[in-house]
Amino acid sequence: MAPARDDYAKSIELLRREKDHFFLHEPASPIPEDRRASLKGLPYFPVDPRFRLRARLQRYPTSEPVVLATSKGIPRNMVRYGFFEFEVDGVRQRLDAYKPAPVPGHHHEDASLFVPFRDATSGKESYGAARYLDIDESPSGDRILDFNLAYNPYCAYSDDYVCPFPPRENWLTIAIRAGEKDVPH
User: Fold this and answer.
1) Cα–Cα distance, 76 to 90 (Å, whole number)
2) How far apart are CA 138 and CA 29, in angstroms?
3) Do residues 89 and 144 make contact, with C-beta atoms less than 8 angstroms apart?
4) pLDDT averaged over consecutive 10-residue blocks of the chain (185 residues)?
5) CA distance 177 to 164
6) Which of 52, 70, 115, 138 could bridge 133 with an S-S bond, Cβ 3.0-4.6 Å?
7) For the chain, what is the largest distance between any 2 Cα atoms, rounded to a whole number of angstroms?
8) Reduced to 3 states, what is the DSSP secondary structure of residue 168?
9) 10 Å Cβ neighbour count for 119?
10) Helices (H) and strands (E) in the chain, counts
11) Cα–Cα distances in Å, from 75 out to 11, 61, 97, 155, 165?
12) Residues with Cβ < 8 Å from 92, sequence gap 6 or more?
C-alpha cells in the first residue's frame, strides 16, 4: 500500500473509532443502553479508496422544494439543490443532493449537502432503508463523494428517530461496499 493510501485508511479508521466510542459510551448515543453491551463497535465495510470519488455538483437552475418520506410518516421538507454524476467500476451513477427547506422567519445557513441513498447492498449487507452522505460545500463545485464515510440514519438503531428515506432517483443500481454496514439487532 502506498503511504498516502495508508494515511487515508488510517484517517477513516480513526473517525470510525471515535464514532464507535460515542455510540457505545455517550448518553446521547442513538443505540439504546441495553443493546450497547453486546456491541464491540459498529460494523463497517473495509476502507476502499475506489469509493472515494471526485465529482462536480451540477446545480439545478432553481432549487425545487420536495418532501421526503420518513420512517415515521412525518414529511421532511427539503430543497433539491443539485446532483452528482460519477462512475464506479465503469458504471455511471447519479445522486441528487438536498438542503433543508427554508423556514420563514428563521435564518438557517447549512453549508453541507445531504445525500441519502440506497444501493444493491441495502437490506442485505447495509441498512435497508438508507445510508447518508454529508458533503461540504465548495465554491469550485468540485466535491469528494467518500462512500467510506456513508453512515446509517439513527433509526437504524432505535425506533425513536425520524429518518428521511431516499427518493427513488437516489437508488443506485450498483453495490457500494463502503461505509457502515447494517447493525445486528
Assistant:
1) 34
2) 30
3) no
4) 75 97 95 89 96 94 93 95 95 96 72 94 97 88 93 95 97 97 85
5) 21
6) 115
7) 52
8) helix
9) 25
10) 2, 6
11) 36, 24, 17, 15, 10
12) 85, 86
Domain range summary for the chain, segments of one domain joined by +: 41-170
Q: How far apart are CA 48 and CA 6, in angstroms?
A: 11
1 Cβ contact list (under 8 Å, min separation 6):
9
Q: Concatenated DSSP letters for 86-139?
A: EEETTEEEEEEEEEEPP-TT------EEEEEEB-TTBTTTB-SS-EEEEEE--T
Element of type H or E holding 6: helix 3-25
From residue 166, give the alpha-carbon distance in Å to each of 64, 76, 157, 183. Answer: 16, 11, 18, 19
The residue with cell 460519477 is 86
Provide the whole-model pTM.
0.92
Closest-CA residue to 183 (of 119, 129, 133, 114)? 129
Cell of 124: 442485505
Rounded-to-integer distance, Cα 87 and Cα 22, Å = 33
The secondary structure of 8-25 as a DSSP string is HHHHHHHHHHHHHHHHHH
- With contact defined as beta carbons under 8 Å apart, do 30 and 23 qualify? yes
Determine contact, residues 143/57, Cβ cutoff 8 Å: yes
Q: Grid coordinates representing 1? A: 500500500
Nearest-Å Rg of the Cα atoms of the chain is 17
